[in-house]
Design a protein that fits this description.
Chloramphenicol Acetyltransferase; 3 domains; about 30% helix; Dihydrolipoamide Transferase; 19 strands; OB fold (Dihydrolipoamide Acetyltransferase, E2P); alpha+beta
């Protein structure tokens, strides 16, 4: 008796997912609760477990977009083969024998030779390569995903001249590789694209800039970083200072922490700070809840935990849902200045940038200081110019005198 494996419900707002990768192959024996596939939604990646032990029969292919409840595979009755071979041999042995005998009569190779795995087949289709032209390095000559990734399309054969009097080609000679490849957009990337375009079209977004002298924070970190790490088990970074400064300023300028809901403005008396993190599959924005009540070391621990989960694609929907204000740090990639796009439905986002030694005037003297440009993009429908500029000036004031963050003045 076979069991249909369907796409489970993974969140209230998620109606479809993409089958990112099969972790097992068609015909493999799988154990109950063993992960057999990776599913990708517009918010996170999930693993699909087997609901019973048996022989896997794949229905959906990698890259397919599937609705919640759609059947992706079935698991047939079958026992685990002896000798550690995960291929089914109880229900398909006769068919295998027959295929092997046919292959033997036609070719000295096995029936699996030239057969691509589901992942390899997808890659070869995208490259436009015939699997029969590839020599597989997998078991019995099977074409593996690595074989497909290494395969290159055959160079086109130049057409022979039909007559000896044909005119010579006048096209310029182009040297170097000119290969192109197509990749289907992931659900996450498609959602990011839609959200960014929506924000640009539906908000009155403006950006205001300021600069921060980072010397006081750098001096404080240099003095206490070893003691801080020894006591709390986590490093003292810049992000905790920015988060603390932002939560203080948000409570003084609540419109920057608000959002529009149809004809109403919702003001939050808490600060759920979204931290933009670059993950392998795209930008994700996990949330630090009630950041206004956390100390510097608690914020640092939250950031490390969420960033690690993001890199490992382990963030849950709940950890990325909500948020009243966002901080993004393009400085880690070398950005000197940018206009970050608001993370809807929030009303503002703070952009951090790289720290550059620059000459500035200080007490009537030109001195060299480590300076950072900061940018606040905001929705002018909610936040007025006075509020946005005052908010950013307050953040600058707190960062340039970090003792204020500890004394709350």
């Amino acid at each position: 008796m076979s069991l249909e494996i369907k796409i489970p419900a993974v969140g209230e707002s998620i109606t479809e997912v993409t089958l990112a990768q099969w972790l097992k192959q068609d015909g493999d024996y799988v154990e109950m609760d063993e992960n057999i596939a990776e599913l990708e939604s517009d918010k996170a990646t999930f693993e699909l477990p087997a609901e019973k032990a048996g022989i896997l029969k794949i229905i959906a292919q990698e890259g397919d977009t599937l609705e919640i409840g759609a059947v992706v595979c079935t698991i047939e009755e079958g026992e685990a083969p002896s000798g550690g071979d995960t291929k089914a041999n109880s229900s398909t042995s006769e068919n295998v024998k027959e295929e092997k005998s046919i292959a033997a009569s036609e070719s000295p190779e096995t029936y699996a030779a030239g057969t691509a795995s589901p992942a390899a087949a997808k890659i070869l289709r995208e490259k436009g390569i015939d699997p029969s032209t590839i020599k597989g390095t997998g078991k019995d000559g099977r074409i593996t995903k690595e074989d497909a990734e290494k395969a290159q399309p055959a160079a086109p054969v130049a057409a022979k001249s039909e007559t000896k009097t044909a005119a010579p080609a006048t096209a310029p000679v182009i040297t170097g590789s000119r290969n192109e490849r197509r990749e289907k957009m992931t659900s996450l990337r498609k959602t990011i694209a839609k959200r960014l375009v929506s924000v640009k079209n539906e908000t009155a977004m403006l950006t205001t800039f300021n600069e921060v002298n980072m010397q006081p924070i750098m001096d404080l970190r240099a003095k206490y970083k070893d003691t801080f790490k020894e006591k709390h088990g986590v490093g003292l970074g810049f992000m905790s200072f920015f988060t603390k400064a932002v939560t203080t300023a948000l409570q003084e300028w609540p419109a920057v922490n608000a959002k529009i809901d149809e004809n109403e403005i919702i003001y939050s008396d808490f600060c759920d700070i979204s931290i933009a993190v670059s993950a392998p599959k795209g930008l994700v924005v996990p949330v630090i809840r009630n950041a206004e009540s956390l100390s510097l070391h608690q914020i640092e621990k939250e950031i490390v935990d969420l960033a690690t989960k993001a890199r490992d694609s382990k963030l849950t929907i709940e950890e990325m849902t909500g948020g009243t204000f966002t901080i993004t740090n393009g400085g880690v990639f070398g950005s000197m200045m940018s206009t970050p796009i608001i993370n809807a439905p929030q009303s503002a986002i703070l952009g951090m940038h790289n720290i550059i030694q620059r000459p500035i005037a200080e007490n009537g003297q030109v001195v060299i200081r480590p300076m950072m440009y900061i940018a606040l993009s905001y929705d002018h429908r909610i936040v007025d110019g006075r509020e946005s500029v005052s908010f950013l000036v307050r953040v600058k004031q707190l960062l340039e005198d970090p003792a204020r963050l500890l004394l709350e003045v």
